[in-house]
Write a structure and sequence with these properties.
Length: 101
């Protein structure tokens, strides 16, 4: 009989513990939509400065980029600040999708 009472007590404690816990909060989902940025600077030294990058709504605005030393555009899933973090101007130019003179 003691086994049944002990088992019942353990069951009551387990049910009470579950009843008073908060459900886990859902983790926020990061945006995965890609954003197109265009480099608006005119010197390579500006390539790692977020102020010299602008969001482009119309992809045709970056058409006509020629191969060169300056970055032209990049399509990324993060903010431009995150993408440029820790990059040198040369790294930003090398990692850009297109480049211009």
């Amino acid at each position: 009989m003691k086994k049944y009472i002990f088992s019942l007590a353990v069951l009551v404690v387990a049910v009470a513990a579950v009843a008073f816990t908060n459900p886990a909060e859902p983790t926020p989902v990061e945006e995965t939509a890609a954003t197109l940025y265009r480099f608006t600077g005119n010197q390579l030294s500006q390539a790692n400065d977020p102020e010299h990058w602008a969001v482009v709504q119309d992809p045709e605005e970056v058409e006509g980029c020629e191969e060169g030393t300056l970055p032209c555009s990049v399509m990324i899933n993060t903010s431009i600040e995150t993408w440029l973090s820790g990059k040198t101007p040369e790294d930003a130019a090398d990692d850009a999708d297109t480049r211009r003179n």
